[in-house]
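I am going through a labmate's work and have reached the protein record below. What it holds is a sequence and that sequence's fold in token form. Please read both lines and tell me whether the tokens look consistent with the sequence. Do not assume that whoever made the record got everything right. Thanks in advance; the entry in question is below.
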Amino acid sequence: MKRNELFQERSSAMKKFSVVLILSLCVFFASCQSEEAPQTEKTAVPGGESPASAIRLDGSSISAESGVTVNGTTATVTASGTYEVTGTLENGQIIVDTAGTVDLILNNASIHCETFSPIQIKNADHIYVTLADGSSNELSDGTAYELVPPETEPDAALFSKSDLTIRGEGTLTVTANYRDGITSKDSLVIESGNLFVTAVNHAIKGKDFLCVENGTITVDAGVDGLKATNDSAASLGYVEIQGGTLTITAQDEGISAITDVTVSGGTIRIDTANNGIKTNGAIRVSSGSLEIQTEDKGLICAEQSIADEAEVSVNGEKITGT
């Protein structure tokens, strides 16, 4: 082979090697950059959903990201998703009005509304109110709502016309000066959280049912403490307590239900001027501790069942059996 031909062959081979090397280095550096690229910091959402959109409260103004319309001191959530509420609102509302599911994360949020519910759920498939870990949140209202007759609702500081679930490891303090503290016109589930509710009327009310799975709940009610009101179906209108620590002070019933009241765990203390627990159906206590101090009757029901392992007392007297 001639020297010129040999040189050309070697030169061609070197060019091919250089191209392969350059491509390999590009892939390597691109991979490194992908692994080390900084991520945008947003609030982590329970269950791994997409990051939350922000609703920022600043005294007499509100700023918000996508999915929220702002009109003065009212923020309306109009799209399903997760929203984080922070800051203080001196006199305004957060409204949810969408066909989807909404998770409203309260992260050191304080909302006062003088003439309506501080948080009002007009429409949603399901509403979650999540109390961010370690956060302290407050809701309060005035003594009169500006309702146009014959409208009687909303009538609670936290009012929902949809299924409502409260969860998280933060604290929520509700001061209801108009009527109820927390009301759902559908179902109400308390999964966890530290709740302190003071209300001139009922403290915590679910229509279809009220279920407490866990958490620390302290209520002071001018009428009933915990309540379920649906009287249209035998399978609804019940109160179920599975766990948690509940301290209930009430001027009427401590716990009131249309159908059944079921206790399967937790520690419950009721101090009431009227009846401790009242229902048209059954009271069933299979586990946990229930202590009632009352100026009237402890348990009023059509049927009563108390398991041996449950601890139930009325004015210091232990109650057992059926």
Summary: DSSP finds one helix and 30 strands in the chain. Helices lie at 3-36. The longest helix spans residues 3-36.
